[in-house]
Structures are given as structure tokens and as C-alpha cells.
Amino acid sequence: MSPTPQTVPLPALPDGLTFLDIVTEWDPAVSYQDWRPQILVPKTFRPLAAPRTVVLANQKGGAAKTTSTVELAAALAAMSHRVLVIDADPQRAALSAWLLPVYPEGLAAADCRTLTDVFFGDATLAEAAHPTNFERIHIVPSGTTLGRVESDRPVGAETCLREEIEAVRDRFDVVLIDAGPTLGLLTVAAMTAADDVVIPTLASGLDIEGVDDLQDTIDRVRRRLNPKLSVRAVLITVWDKSTVARDMATAMTDRYPDAIVAPVRRSTRAKEAPAAKEPTRLYEPTAAPVRDYDQIARLLLPKAI
Ligand SMILES: Nc1ncnc2c1ncn2[C@@H]1O[C@H](COP(=O)(O)OP(=O)(O)OP(=O)(O)O)[C@@H](O)[C@H]1O
Ligand SMILES: [Mg+2]
Fold first, then answer.
1. Are 146 and 90 contacting, i.e. CB atoms less than 8 angstroms apart?
2. What Å distances lie between residue 301 and 7, 10, 21, 72, 201, CA to CA?
3. Which atom of ligand 1 is nearest to the CA of 95?
4. N or C: which end of the chain has fewer CB within 10 A?
């Protein structure tokens, strides 16, 4: 791997910002008008310890999986964690187009290693992990033909990522895998490699139903490939004050009583950040989602060092 170039540090948030209140259960007595966004941290929740591999999964498109991957990576890097993000989306490669990999000088992007090469045995994960413009964040880009993993099913694909991540364990405190909007082989491989699942979801009735299929896949992976996998957080993304957001929060707590359930508030700044090729944390540090992801990151993985 090439030496890390000069990178931009991600700032700690300015003093004086308010964070969301933390509760241990939802209070059904609070009327809708008085309801404010809060984070539910159940009494049974124990913070995670690095090194940790987390998959952000939901087969519903547009649930903010990629956004949550980038913003959590930025929040964790600002806390001094060394973060590796893996773009496991075979369709859009949105992560690789946002946190741009910095390839070794003189090498064309087409000649650089990607996740596709890792699955087909042509590169190790270490060879496919490239620095980004941001201090402490590396990325494994997806590659243009990642979809071939689903069609060609290379030998050992289900466990490939787990073995490869194990080999880079001492270089990264946190590995975040951005799964695509499918429950195919790549998502199964990501879940097999992960310790934890974070489910970003929009607040809508249809999205609640979609979580059943996701849970079936998690159960299947748990039974056959990775018994320790567990859902640690549900993020209710692009959050607006609405009855449906509140119903979603309650439904998710019923389903995942040991998981954090947290809103991530809507902000046009978060929508603009991908085009600026930087996390919202740099683009507009005072935007509400920056605070929300910062708080979620601190709850999930308090800084150990
Ligand atoms: N907090 C937010 N406020 C406003 N817009 C947001 C917020 N979070 C995400 N978005 C927007 O929602 C859209 C979907 O987000 P994103 O691409 O992260 O979802 P995804 O689950 O990764 O989608 P896909 O399934 O296609 O991979 C994007 O346009 C993104 O900018
Ligand atoms: Mg995505």
C-alpha cells in the first residue's frame, strides 16, 4: 500500500451545541405535539469495543445506508478511531464516488484494486484499501464489475470478507460496510464478516414491513455463518416530526429491544455533501445530522484510547 498522503483532519464539533435527550424507553403519554426527537438507549445496551466490524444494511433503496456510513465514519475518525469503509453496493458505488479513494501516484484508477478483486482472489483487502482525503479514513471501492460476484458466485464468497478483514484487524479500529439495496450474496458476505448490524430506515409503514425480509436474512446468516451477529442500532433517517416517525421508533424498539433507536434529522446540507465530496461534518459542521451521527457514534463506540 502507498504511504498515506496529506489528509484533512475531521474536526471535533464546536462547543455549545445541543445534543438529543437520551431515554431508556419511549413515553406513550407524551402527546404528538410535545414529542421531540430523542435517542432511545435501552438499559440492556452495552457500548461496543474496538476492533469492530459493522454492516449498514436495509434492502430498501434510499434508506440512507451510504449517508450513514460516511457520516459515522467521519464522526468515528474525529474521535481518533482508524476507520475502513467498504463499498459493497454493486449497483451505485455511491460511497466510492463520495469518499474518493486516493490512488497511488502514476496509477490509473482502472488499474487500482477494488472489492471486486478481493472477491475474485486477485487482491487482498489490504491491497484494495486506499487512503481518502480525510485523515484516518480508508476506503475499499466497489469496482465497476462488483455485480459479477452475485452472478458468478466465486468460491468462498460468503466468508471471503470475514477472512480478509481479520487480516487487517490491527490497522483499523472500525470497519463500516455499506451494503447495497439487496439481500444477495454481497450483503450476506458483509453480514458474515460483521459483528453488528446498524439498520438505517426511513419512517414509513412500508419500510416497517421491509424489515421482516432483512431480519430473515440476518437470522439465516446467524444460523449458518455468523452466530454472534446482532442488530445494535436502528437509525430513523431523514427524520421529520411526524406520527409515522414516532410509530416507526416504537415499532423498532418492540422488534429490537436491545438496540439503540435514534433519529437522524433531515437537512439539505446532508443531501448536498456528496456532491462536495466531503462528509457533512466538514461541509456544514453545525447541520443537525452531524450532531445526530456524532452522538450515535459516541454511544456505539466510545473512544477507548
Ligand atoms: N439526514 C438527511 N437529510 C436529508 N437528506 C438525506 C439525509 N440522509 C440521507 N439523505 C438523502 O437521502 C437519499 C438516500 O440516501 P443514501 O444514498 O445514503 O441511501 P442508501 O440507503 O444508501 O441508498 P441505496 O439503497 O440506493 O444505496 C440521498 O439523496 C441522501 O442525500
Ligand atoms: Mg447506498
1. yes
2. 23, 17, 18, 10, 21
3. 22
4. C
Number of CB atoms found within 10 A of residue 262's CB: 27
Q: What average pLDDT does this structure show over 105-109?
A: 83
Cell numbers linked to 8: 484533512
The yes-or-no verdict on residue 5 having pLDDT over 70 is: no
The cell for 211 is 424489515
What does the pLDDT read at residue 212?
A: 86
pTM, two decimals, is 0.96
Task: Tell me what pLDDT residue 304 has.
Answer: 57
**CB contact set of 282 (below 8 Å; sequence gap of 6+):** 8, 10, 11, 74, 134
Which among 67, 91, 98 is the best mutation to test ligand 1's pocket, defined by most ligand atoms within 8 Å of the CB? 67
**Under a CB-based contact definition with an 8 Å cutoff, are residues 289 and 71 in contact?**
yes
- Supply the residue whose CA is at minimum distance from atom 31 of ligand 1: 271
Reported as a single tens digit per residue, the pLDDT across 113-171 is 999 999 999 999 999 999 999 999 999 999 889 999 999 999 999 999 999 999 999 99
Amino acid at 243: T
What letters, b where the CB count within 10 A reaches 16 and e where it falls short, cover 29-55? eeeeeebebbbbbeeebeebebbbbbb
Using the predicted structure, report yes or no on whether residue 206 has a pLDDT greater than 80.
Answer: no
CATH class of 52-299: alpha beta
- Neighbouring residues of 245: CB distance < 8 A, sequence distance ≥ 6: 203, 236, 239, 263
Buried b (16+ CB within 10 A) or exposed e, 95-126: bbebbbbbbeeeeeeeebbbbbbbbbeebbbb
